[in-house]
Amino acid sequence: MRLYHSQFLMELRKLCNRYDVPLVMDKIATGFGRTGAMFAFHRCRIHQDNLKIPKELHVDVYPGIICVETALTGGYMTLSAVVTTPKIAVTISNPEP
After folding, report:
1. Positive or negative CA dihedral for 76, 80, 12, 38?
2. 1 within some domain
3. Is the pLDDT of residue 76 over 90?
4. Which has more pLDDT, 97 or 14?
5. What letter does residue 76 receive in the DSSP assignment?
6. Is residue 35 part of a domain?
7. What digits encode the pLDDT tens for the residues 28-44?
8. Does the residue 54 lie in any domain?
9. Taking the CA of residue 36 as centre, how many other CA atoms within 13 Å lie in the half-sphere pointing to its CB?
């Protein structure tokens, strides 16, 4: 598997912010510590720290929607979860069209 560079994810987050598009992440292969961080997007913070970028200039990389599955049960049984930001949760939970 070829993983993307942290800088790519940082630039993608900037674009999503600029155009108000949710960033969707699926963590089946890169979640729950498989990349050395709890989730792969956490490595962006480490990358920025390594580059000595001041904290106030860090790009806050986070998913608008994150899907987690297999690792929740270690593959023992089928279980998944979808977690969203509050803004997205309110939007999809609203019964009005």
Report:
1. negative
2. no
3. no
4. 14
5. S
6. yes
7. 665 666 667 778 888 89
8. yes
9. 6
The residues, any chain, with a CB within 8 Å of residue 49's CB and separated by 6 or more, are: none
User: What pTM value is reported for the model?
Assistant: 0.77
| pLDDT for 97 | 66
* Number of domains the chain contains: 1
Tell me, what DSSP letter sits at residue 31? B
* DSSP one-letter code for 57: G
Q: What domain range includes position 50? A: 6-93
- Look at the alpha carbons of 1, 28, 26, 66 in this order and tell me if their dihedral is positive or negative: negative
**Burial of residue 31 (number of CB atoms within 10 Å: 0-12, 13-18, 19+):** buried
- Is residue 51 in some structural domain? yes
Give the confidence band of 16 by pLDDT, cuts at 50, 70, 90: very high
Residue 9 and residue 35 in contact, taking contact as beta carbons nearer than 8 Å? no
DSSP assignment letter at 39: B
